[in-house]
UniProtKB/TrEMBL annotation:
Residues spanning the signal sequence: none
Molecular-function annotations in GO: nucleic acid binding
Protein name per UniProt: Integrase core domain protein
Task performed by this protein: Involved in the transposition of the insertion sequence.
Domain of life where this protein originates: Bacteria
Gene Ontology BP annotations: DNA integration
InterPro entries, sorted: HTH-like_dom (IPR025948), Integrase_cat-core (IPR001584), RNaseH-like_sf (IPR012337), RNaseH_sf (IPR036397), Transpos_IS3 (IPR048020), Transposase_IS3/IS150/IS904 (IPR050900)
Integrase catalytic domain sequence ranges: 105-267
Length: 272
């Protein structure tokens, strides 16, 4: 075989016994770490976030190099693009103003919240409805409710939960669209002492952060498998929000920390 390949016997055995280079050893070790981070993120992180996690652990590496290794290993961020569902806006009063005015970066927690409702399809029970409330400072989901109907009483349990969890006496701007749930008398009563803010009709960009979160949970989590019923949908939403998004998932807005850690750092740095 060596004769056919025109390779000397001594050259062949030198190749077989040669120790791998430092560069090759580093690449092998880096490949293992990339695979571990990818699996820990439930295969959600791509090269940009994996690079950040590696840098945070003290491993200096470029995003391009991480991307090249991921391609060689055949791994990538897995998500499915969500379908777009449009809804008609409810009748509204000219008194509903956009107080937030797309100021999505408040300087401290509990300055501004935003809320919205999204649809989740189940095979056996049709649509169920996820209502979420986000604190814009950290992008943390401070309360959420999954309901089988869009009735006002059911949807607004989410706001009641947010008020219990945050226990804030500060005037909070709470932003929503102009759907019937958020222009109802019950919503008005629940937001006494808060500052109501509303998107312009047909303008989802005014509530972009919570819209983005609902697209994210579908793209990264819910659309990756068929959901049979409400119970399965609830379990998946719980796992994503409480077990990953708030606690683990790094966010560029949060200096590549999780929302929980970002808020914790704020309170530690502002105790005095």
């Amino acid at each position: 075989m060596l004769d056919k390949l025109n390779v000397s016997k001594s050259g062949y055995y030198d190749y077989v016994n040669r120790k791998p280079s430092k560069q090759k050893v580093r690449k092998q070790e880096l490949s293992k770490k990339i695979k571990a981070i990818h699996e820990e993120s439930h295969e959600i992180y791509g090269a940009p976030k994996i690079t950040v996690k590696l840098n945070q652990s003290g491993i200096k590496v470029s995003e391009k190099y991480v991307g090249n290794i991921m391609r060689e290993m055949g791994i990538k961020a897995h998500y499915i693009r969500p379908c777009t569902i449009t809804t008609k806006d409810s009748d509204f009063s000219s008194k509903l103003k956009n107080i937030l005015k797309r100021n999505f970066n408040p300087e401290k927690p509990n300055s501004a919240w935003c809320t919205d409702i999204t649809y989740i399809w189940t095979q056996e029970e049709g649509f169920v409805y996820l209502t979420s409330i986000m604190d814009l400072y950290s992008r943390k989901i401070i309360a959420w409710k999954l309901t089988k109907t869009m009735e006002v009483e059911e949807v607004l349990k989410c706001l009641e939960e947010a008020k219990r969890r945050r226990k804030t006496d500060n005037p909070v701007v709470i932003h929503s669209d102009r759907g019937v749930q958020f222009t109802s008398k019950k919503y008005y009563n629940l937001t006494v002492g808060m500052i109501g803010s509303y998107s312009k009709k047909g303008n989802p960009w005014d509530n972009a952060c919570i819209e983005s979160f609902h697209a994210l949970i579908k793209r990264e989590w819910l659309n990756r498998k068929k959901i049979n019923d409400y119970s399965e949908a609830y379990q998946m939403v719980f796992e994503y929000i409480e077990g990953f998004y708030n606690t683990v998932r790094i966010h560029s807005h949060c200096d590549y920390q999780s929302p929980n850690k970002y808020e914790k750092n704020y309170y530690q740095n502002n105790l005095n």
